Amino acid sequence: MEAPKSGPQRAPECVLCGCCLEGCPLLAATGREELSPRAKALLAGPSKFASVQLDEAAIAALAGLCLACGRCEKLCPQGVKVPQLVAGLRAGHPDFRQWIWKQWITRLGPFWGLAARGAAVTPGAFVPAQFSLALKGLRGLRPGAGLAPWLTFTDLPAAAFAAKYGARPAAVFDGCVGKGPRKSWGGTARSLLRGLGARLVEAEFSCCGSTLGVAGLPAEQEGVRRANVAAWRAAGRPLLVTYCATCRKGLADYAGVFADADEEREWREGVVPLAALLSGAKAKAGRGAPALLGWHRPCHADPADADFALMSGLLGARLRTPTKGRCCGFGGIMQLGAPELSARVGADCWTALDGVLGFSAAPEVTPAYVLTGCSGCVMQLSATAPEGARVGHWLEIVKAG
Fold first, then answer.
1. How far apart are CA 148 and CA 154, in angstroms?
2. 393, 375 in Cβ contact below 8 A?
3. Per-residue pLDDT tens for 136-180?
4. Is there a contact between 70 and 298 (Cβ–Cβ < 8 Å)?
5. Lowest mean pLDDT among 3-7, 325-329, 334-338, 342-346
6. What's the CATH number for 282-397?
7. Domain ranges, ordered by start, for the chain
8. Residue 340 burial by CB count (10 A; 0-12/13-18/19+): exposed, middle or buried?
9. What is the pTM of this model?
10. Collapsing DSSP states into helix, strand and coil, what is residue 320?
11. Which residues, listed in sequence order, are joined to residue 235 by a DSSP beta bridge?
């Protein structure tokens, strides 16, 4: 008896169950269900209930109000990917913000470091409202704004690395921030990889493309994806070592840009967080180490949450993180469209961190000192931080060499 032939697969449909509502940081911060994933699924489809009729201006406005954090995807029993639906809406209703975002990501990347320096001396009164939060994030990346190193690795799992990866070369994917204002992150990452015995190769990688896709710029996203795959091939198909959670997810989501299924599988298997390679390492805290510090879990952390696993193993009881982690509110292009909503989500995130650190009650005893593993989160947490807070990537506290 022949097996039934499978026809074209239907896209998952929203059934209005509301499972996604609990995870939406925009809904939690505002109480406005028109900003929820369920509302956006109705707006964008596919849904048998989608009979909502809105004018083009309203659709464009609502399309811009999504953080693309992906928390709703993890909760949806139907498998509806609302950030993808919103990206489609944005692509169908382009506006000036997409043009600005495209230039910022694809053309001005080499000048991010200069922009961070300029942001530090630009008076807020001269900044248009839609750029205010982005400017604050850049200020957090200016020279001198990072964290001083105080953690020294004393034992690296070189034998485990060699056993798993053999002589396969490794390339560091720095991403936009790591290539620009925070080149020190990449330097420390390469130092740790050399300590593991990795054979490092360099490749001319571009932006991962994630932020372009969610901004509704699919052609630009495909362009940087193809460029990155070409650079990877030219470098000998090395491991792709990441230290930004969003870059890791962006690279892991690549599709339709490979020569064949085998190449795609080799790519996916090669995308690995630096923290995962350091699992089992030992380190000691030196002078300057805070007695208590917070950890912010990025929305796009890898399934094993390798960054937090590494830091909690090395720092022990001094590291605190909220039981229910909150989105920082970065949202990519939403920084330009609705900075006030992005800031409200960021405020909720800091409230949760304060709940485990207690810095608002006694800042002179327990300062707000927070680590994370995502470049976008570093920018957003810096932009929304309370006075005197210190924020940085975990690589900043590591003494390289």
1. 18
2. yes
3. 777 777 777 789 999 999 999 999 999 999 999 999 999 999 998
4. no
5. 3-7
6. 3.40.50
7. 19-93, 155-277, 282-397
8. exposed
9. 0.91
10. strand
11. none
